[in-house]
Known about the structure:
By secondary structure, the protein is α/β, with parallel strands linked by helices.
Amino acid sequence: MYLGLDLGTSGVKAMLIDGDQTIVGSANGSLDVSRPHSGWSEQEPAHWVRATQEAVAGLMAKHPKELAAVRGIGLSGQMHGATLIDAADKVLRPCILWNDTRSHVEAAALDADPRFRALTGNIVFPGFTAPKLAWIRQHEPDIFAKIAKVLLPKDYLRLWLTGEYISEMSDSAGTSWLDTGKRAWSPDLLAATHLSEEQMPTLVEGTQQAGMLRSELAAQWGISGNVVVAGGAGDNAASACGMGTVSDGAAFVSLGTSGVLFAANGSYLPKPESAVHAFCHALPNTWHQMGVILSATDALNWHSGVTGKSAADLTGELGETLKAPTGVTFLPYLSGERTPHNDAVIRGAFIGLEHESSRAVLTQAVLEGVAFAIRDNLEALRSAGTGISRVTAIGGGSRSRYWLASIATALGVPVDLPADGDFGAAFGAARLGLIAATGADPIAVCTPPVTSGTIEPVSALSGAYEEVYTRYRALYPAIKSLAR
C-alpha cells in the first residue's frame, strides 16, 4: 500500500492506493485560513499536523489493515508558503500563504534585480516565498534573526513525519530562490534576501527517497516496517502526476480555490514577462509551464457567501445548456491576480449591472469571468511557446458541466473528463510514494486516466464569447487606476 498526503488550503487529504494503483480509500482533515488584514492569508503549521492526523485517523477507522501495509508515502502541498522555524524546530510565526499579497512592494524590488528572472525563469510574484522573507526582515526583524530553516508547507509536514529538512524541485521552483534550469538553489538569489543555503532544505527529485517515517508515528498508525517518504511535489505538479500530465504537450485545467492551466514540457521554456510560471516538474529532467489565477472556485464561493445559496444551488439554477453572455461581466480579481497581470492590488468587479440582473445572471457572469481569466492564461502560454489542443478538467469546480462548457467555449478547445475516480494531487502524491519505495519507472506509473467524456466548445456561441472576451480584456486596464 502507498499513502498520498495532500496539504491543501482548506484541508488535508489522505489517500491509500495499492500496488496496482487502485484507490483503496481516502479521508480528510479540515483547515481554516486566517485573514488578519486586507491582503493577508495565514495558517498555523500546527493545524496542518492536526488535520493530517484527522485524515489518517479516518483511514485507520475504515482501512486499518491496508494502512498497516503502507511502504511509501508521497507528499503534495500548497506552494509558496513561508514556514519559518528556529534552531529547535519551533515555528516562529503563522505561515504566510500562497495567496497572501502583503509583500507586493518587496516583490517588485526583487523583480527589478535582473538576476531573479534570469535564474528562476519567473517574475517574482508577491505570493512567492522570497518576497515574504524580505517583508519579514523589514517588518518583523526579531523573527527574521531567529530563522534557522525556511520550509514550504508540505516540507514542514515532512519534518514532522521524518525529522528531515528536505524539499524537491517542483515546489522549490516557486520560491524565487531556485535556479530552475540547473535544478539547484542559487546562492546569489538567497543572498539578495539575506539568507544562505544553510537555511534551505536539501533538494531531491520528487520521485526520490526523502526520509523515512518516524517509528513513533508508524506505531501510532499501526504500520510495521520501514516506510519511505518520497520527495513529492507542489500541488499542481502532484495533480499532473495524478492526471498523467507528464509528457510534452499534455495539459489540464484545474478549478480549485485558485485556477490553473498546466502544460508539461520536455525542456525548460521560460518567458517571465508573460507572467507564465516555468517550474521544474516532479519527475527528473522535466519542466512545466502554468498560468495561475488566484480566484476560481474561490470566486464562486464568495458569490455563494453573499447570496446565501450553496455553490451547487447557484450553478444548478443555470442548468447544463450553455447560455449566451448577458452583458454582465465579472472580473475575478478578489485577491489580486497573477497570470497575466502580476497585480497584487487589483480587485474584482461586476460591470454592466442593471435592474434586470438576477442572481442567476450574476452566477453566469462569475463562471464566465473565471473562464475568461483562464483564456488569459492560454494566451500567455501560447506567447511562451506552448500550444494546447485539448485539456483535461480536474478540481471541485469541474463537477459543473455548465462551467466546463463555458471554459471549453472560451478557450476554443475540447475539455476531457476523466473517468470516475480521484486523479488529483493526493493520488499523484501516492504515485510518487510508490515510485520512491519501489524504484518503478515514473512514466510507466504516471499514466493518464481513461476519458469518460468530452465537452466540446459550443460553436454557436463562439462568436459571442469572443466578443465578450475582447471586452473583458479591455476592462482590466480600465479599472487598474481605480484600485490603487
